[in-house]
């Protein structure tokens, strides 16, 4: 008797499991309403200030599309990726219609889940390819096809404390190369005790990445070959080492560490993307008027000083039930000048839409920065930014580069550390390695 | 199986009784069905599916079988081997140290001489229930270059220590943090077990002239052996799956020196999207836990 019921039980359990496994694709959006008269609710995942920008853009959009509504879920940046990855791995289950993704992850996602996202070129996005800077276009497209709509960018700059510079008798205009900056930083440290830059030395490498991007190289080259041993990369790492040896780098813990160093004035400059403006204005209110921006120093006189760090774009998961509506809204969001200006003015999100740069906002001075025209500076930088080649192995490469940097700060020779990192990367990704 | 009502025709009574017996048999299964079904959906199915995935690799977004390739790759993967080594170093140092400390604390707090027992017990147990976020933030602030620990060291004349950035000290920091968090938990388990040791044993021992230290090693430890084994296995499993501390304090750095198998598993799955390989790592952890638990049973000579 027992045996028979046991069989039944197993059957029930098995069918329950099958049901759970086969319940298949489900979008988190409302199912009803293919007809244009009915309400369509789009869902989106985004974080931080992007949520507000998206909501306000929807209000404008609704003036001509009253039947479309938007529900934005404000999820932490890394949580978005965790949820997105698991959703894609489960064949698109539970994904929203719109998701914000940082540029350095786009290629990784598209390569890992080629059918996971809507090919925007097929929807006609190619008509906009000339309104965005080249590097942004390269980041949002894979094999010449758009998979993401460009949103904000992160042209880099050195945010610096004008009062500390003055006290040390250093002029930002005179700093042209990293060597100039090294000399200036030593003076500043002596006069004010402030470090040159904050850096999470053993866990992150943003300055190294900016230096690579500025010099037209990255972890990988255009063909996807490992390029960490490029002499220019070695030189960049050696430069960081020089700053560290001179005691000019403040070792901080993560993002919060950088912010508190910015607020308490223990660093004289913070090299970051334009989006850091929002944080400074928000967190360091007491230092109103004491800030300025200059471009990254070059490696040789007259060399390139433009680079990009961060920035994000919008993607549409292929499992969305309202692809056309999501496309229409995002097209409106990404290519409408006024929307981009709103995002910039209210939320400090630097647009990559080139036509936005003509507006008054970009040519007027910023009071918090002592009246300096910082937006003009960033906007002019955009066209000179070289493309960074992230590839689908970016996450591994980033980890290996951080390890190399940690090794260097723990005393290893920069060239040797980068060679070892490149070899590990080769083992892990099976990619070819450039030899110099 | 006796007919109750002789007035009822025989056939009907038989089916009634059959129904009754059937009900009796099926009801328990209905009662346990919710938990069995939930367990199957949320535990058995993932466990089974990840086993299948451990033989698969992702090619162009589709999972395809690649035989034992993942397992072969694992044993030639320098980073995995490093993570394995790190995990075992932490295991070998941290678990015995923590358990011994917990045992001593338990014995001290069990002593009849001590006042404010409840307060001590609570304060030693508190770390185990502290929010992970608060705990990791406080530790990273304390262990910063100009943090509390280094300020204290400088105050007593020792030069500051790179707690989170030196290959050796980063491991020490992890071990310190883990010990702080779990020593009280194990202590409470020992305290409970200590209540069960008969006072007679200690009395007899003191009449024989055995010192307190001798009593600790010859009575307390042997009497607690099954509990010590239990906590050792729990801690071993916990350490093999170690993720929280390296993730929040060092991110596995500097240069993978504090990377644990658990962290590598997370990175492989959720940073590199290599779910197949991540499942392989998960199954290797399972096998390791099984082997280590078996050894611990054998070494302690407890056949029960």
TrEMBL record, chain A:
Which source organism? Anoxybacillus mongoliensis
Q: Does the keyword Transmembrane helix apply?
A: no
The record, for Pfam families, names: SBP_bac_8
Signal peptide interval: 1-20
The name on file for this protein is Lactose/L-arabinose transport system substrate-binding protein
Keywords for this entry?
Cell membrane, Lipoprotein, Membrane, Palmitate, Signal
